[in-house]
């Protein structure tokens, strides 16, 4: 698992993809920081975080689109599966590699925090922790969706489109749920990643939300292993 | 070492392989021969645990692939038809990755890595990206990958496909050398390859095994006639007539040698009759000297065609 993680992280940084994604993320979040946080002289980052979380809807599909598709395309899936590692280790290694790049991207926001402190601002620590944990958990869930999507096809673009579509639906699920109401709303709410994020970002460190995100991530990773296994059973 | 029993794999309605059984002994090079689409890759994918079978069992060194996949996978090095390579890595990095993946002890790996690279002759390209290597070198890196962790069993799926003749000869030599301390299954649809490298051959056609034997035995048992090649000086028509008069000659074919008064003759005779002596006497009497006499066994190619076309007739 460690070997797969290491290889994938290296692969991200051998190619321009990680740099481009981190660059885009940093550029857009800097715009928000300059014109939102600095201009309004706010000594906090939670508004910024909740504003820039939409970028993940675009970044995560691109980040994960080649993570499993590539192995099917160039035949390395055979190498991984016929090695003495379990399928879940393969999926977990790949997921953690994408998450690592995400963490590097995410760490770029610490610069804003430093600037706030330098300018004499004193953000509220619990709010900050809640916001960061929430952002991280949402990112992990998005990446799990992306990994799942990339197990469905051997075409990177198709994988990106699938995960992008899923994430778009998740983005608009709250308005849909409140529109339909009733039992359907309850079901839809199970997929509402962002409503729980709002709680965390306002400093409410609710354990059930944390568990929710972790299980959401785990379920999608589990589904990914099932997809890989099923394909092995059904075709060659 | 490897025991395969009643292996069957269906893809929906399509039967890829049906009731395939054979065993591979320790230290043996087994040729797995069949036309394209016969089920070679499917069988190999099942043995290596890439794909489960519909029914039947595979055991390697006593371990069942379904019950104990980890133990089996540890013992097998697999080179699929398309070598599984990460093109964005250097050869050295890639092999290190494989060693980690196969959980090879770090100290062991240090010396093993150099041995493997020496063996398949890729030491001088170890710092190059696999992307920039030629097909022949990629194949060798693929082979090196299979050797990582010193598995007892090597499974090689069409290892010489797409290589130039010089590379093919080198890879074959390499496989023969590896056969000294590995058990090898080698698949191919090229017959001379199998007869050059393998001690025993399994011929598969349309998902079923049609023959298992040594290349020599196959050629001996299947032939119901003996075959010679003769080169004789003398006019073609006369010589042909003389040979055909000999009792036991079943079939005669004349080949041009490029010289006016010399011709090659391919002679098939019934199995129990030695036609060489009467032919010699007849020709000597007529004053046509025999310049060459050579016995031709049934080539693997002919056996193969015979077996696979017989199968066709049954269907």
Sum this structure up briefly.
The complex is a heterodimer of chains A (236) and B (315). Chain A is an all-alpha fold and 236 residues long. Chain A has 14 helices and no strands.
Most residues in contact, chain pair and counts: A-B, 26 and 33 residues
| CATH architecture label of the largest domain in chain B | 3-Layer(aba) Sandwich
Order of helices and strands of chain B: EEEHEEHEHHHEHEHEEHEHEEHEH
**Measured distance between first and last alpha carbons of chain B:** 34 Å
Amount of helix of chain B: 25-40%
SS summary, helix count of chain B: 11
Radius of gyration of chain A: 19 Å
Enumerate how many helices of chain A there are, as a single number.
14
Largest sheet of chain B: 6 strands, mixed
Largest sheet of chain A: none
Number of domains of chain A: 1
Parts with pLDDT < 50 across at least 5 consecutive residues of chain A: none
Q: Mean pLDDT of chain B, rounded to whole units?
A: 85
Tally of individual domains of chain B: 2
């Amino acid at each position: 698992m460690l070997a797969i993680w290491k290889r994938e992280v290296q692969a991200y940084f051998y190619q321009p993809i990680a740099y481009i994604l981190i660059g885009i993320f940093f550029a857009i979040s800097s715009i928000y920081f300059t014109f939102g946080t600095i201009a309004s002289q706010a000594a906090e980052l939670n508004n910024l975080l909740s504003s820039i979380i939409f970028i993940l809807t675009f970044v995560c599909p691109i980040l994960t689109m080649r993570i499993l598709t590539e192995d099917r395309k160039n035949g390395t899936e055979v190498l991984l599966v016929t090695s003495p590692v379990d399928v879940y280790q393969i999926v977990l290694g790949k997921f953690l590699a994408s998450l690592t790049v995400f963490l590097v991207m995410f760490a770029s926001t610490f610069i804003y925090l430093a600037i706030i402190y330098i300018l004499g601002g004193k953000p509220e620590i619990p709010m900050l922790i809640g916001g960061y944990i929430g952002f991280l958990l949402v990112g992990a869930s998005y990446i799990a969706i992306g990994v799942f999507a990339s197990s469905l096809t051997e075409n990177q673009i198709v994988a990106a489109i699938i995960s992008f579509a899923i994430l778009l639906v998740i983005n608009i699920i709250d308005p849909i749920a409140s529109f339909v109401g009733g039992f359907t709303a309850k079901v839809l709410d199970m997929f509402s990643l962002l409503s729980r994020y709002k709680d965390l970002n306002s400093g409410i460190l609710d354990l059930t939300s944390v568990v929710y995100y972790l299980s959401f991530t785990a379920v999608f990773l589990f589904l990914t292993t099932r997809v890989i296994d099923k394909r092995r059973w059904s075709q060659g | 070492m490897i025991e395969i029993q009643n292996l069957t794999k269906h893809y929906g309605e399509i039967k890829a392989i049906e009731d395939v059984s054979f065993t591979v002994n320790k230290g043996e090079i087994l040729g797995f021969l069949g036309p394209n689409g016969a089920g070679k890759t499917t069988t190999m994918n099942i043995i290596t645990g890439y794909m489960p079978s519909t029914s039947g069992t595979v055991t390697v060194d006593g371990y069942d692939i379904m019950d104990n996949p980890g133990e089996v996978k540890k013992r097998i090095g697999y080179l699929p038809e398309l070598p599984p390579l990460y093109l964005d890595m250097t050869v050295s990095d890639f092999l290190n990755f494989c060693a980690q993946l196969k959980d090879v002890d770090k100290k062991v790996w240090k010396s093993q890595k150099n041995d493997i690279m020496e063996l398949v002759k890729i030491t001088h390209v170890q710092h190059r990206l696999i992307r920039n290597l030629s097909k022949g070198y990629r194949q060798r890196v693929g082979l090196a990958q299979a050797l990582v962790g010193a598995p007892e069993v090597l499974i090689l799926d069409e290892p010489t496909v797409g290589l130039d003749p010089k590379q093919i000869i080198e890879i074959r030599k390499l496989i023969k050398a590896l056969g000294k301390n590995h058990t090898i299954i080698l698949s191919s649809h090229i017959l001379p390859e199998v007869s050059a490298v393998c001690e025993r051959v399994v011929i598969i056609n349309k998902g079923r095994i049609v023959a298992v034997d040594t290349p020599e035995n196959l050629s001996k048992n299947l032939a119901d006639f003996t075959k010679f090649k003769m080169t004789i000086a003398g006019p073609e028509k006369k010589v042909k007539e003389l040979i055909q008069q000999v009792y036991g000659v079943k079939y005669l074919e004349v080949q041009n040698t490029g010289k006016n008064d010399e011709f090659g003759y391919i002679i098939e005779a019934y199995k129990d009759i030695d036609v060489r002596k009467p032919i010699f006497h007849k020709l000597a009497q007529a004053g046509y000297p025999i310049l060459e006499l050579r016995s031709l066994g049934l080539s693997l190619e002919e056996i193969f065609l015979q077996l696979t076309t017989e199968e066709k007739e049954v269907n």
